[in-house]
Structures are given as structure tokens and as C-alpha cells.
User: Which sequence fits this backbone?
């Protein structure tokens, strides 16, 4: 059964049963950004560091980057986001995923927030 962890910068990491990770942004993040109009994804095979840039995003409100919750090597990108970045707005935890990685150090995920802790963190922002 997969497990989802969160960062305080509103990225999520779903650790799959095979030990790979899927990364995207939370509903809170997509809501704050507004309609996404562009998503720049890394190339497959690229090694990404924890806390480093994983993807770039542009919305009607802002431009920014997605930070890596853990380090890893990109094994897949969500190519459909190039034609339809709004998938992130409509389904941020599903069809709106950004990248899949082979996680370099699974222990890095231990420092991330679980669902209850993330929900509490988001509640403290209001």
C-alpha cells in the first residue's frame, strides 16, 4: 500500500509499493497558485537532490519551482501536463502528478509530514 508524505512547501511524495516515488503539489498549493498555464519537467534520467528544483511552474498568479521532497533519479514524467497543465488544478493528487523517481535514500522521507501533520500545518496558515 502506497504512503503519502508532505513538505511544508506543499509538495507531496507518494511512496509506491516498489519503492519508487511519485511527486506533485498539494491541493492547497494549486489553490494558492490559481490556474496553472505551464509546467517545465526535468528529463528522464536526471538526478535531483533533496530540496533542489524538481520542476518549474507558471500560473496566472505566479511563477516558481517545485522542490524535491527527497533525492532521486527521474524515471518518468507526466508528459500530458505539457498539453493540459490544468490537470494539476483539477486532480493534484492524481492525474496532476509531476514526476516519478527512483528514491536515492528512503530514510529522507522519514522527516516529511504525514497527512495529519500536514493538515495541522495548513490549518495554522489560515
Assistant:
Amino acid at each position: 500500500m502506497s504512503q503519502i508524505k508532505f513538505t511544508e512547501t506543499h509538495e507531496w511524495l507518494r511512496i509506491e509499493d516498489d519503492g519508487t516515488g511519485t511527486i506533485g503539489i498539494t491541493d492547497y498549493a494549486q489553490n494558492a497558485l490559481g490556474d496553472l498555464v505551464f509546467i517545465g519537467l526535468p528529463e528522464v534520467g536526471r538526478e535531483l537532490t533533496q530540496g533542489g528544483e524538481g520542476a518549474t511552474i507558471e500560473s496566472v498568479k505566479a511563477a516558481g519551482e517545485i522542490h524535491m521532497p527527497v533525492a532521486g533519479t527521474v524515471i518518468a514524467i507526466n508528459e500530458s501536463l505539457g498539453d493540459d497543465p490544468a490537470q494539476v488544478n483539477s486532480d493534484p493528487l492524481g492525474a496532476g502528478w509531476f514526476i516519478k523517481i527512483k528514491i536515492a535514500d528512503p530514510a529522507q522521507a522519514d522527516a516529511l509530514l504525514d497527512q495529519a501533520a500536514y493538515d495541522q500545518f495548513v490549518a495554522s496558515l489560515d
User: Anything to note?
Assistant: The two ends are 32 Å apart (CA to CA). The first helix runs from residue 27 to 33.
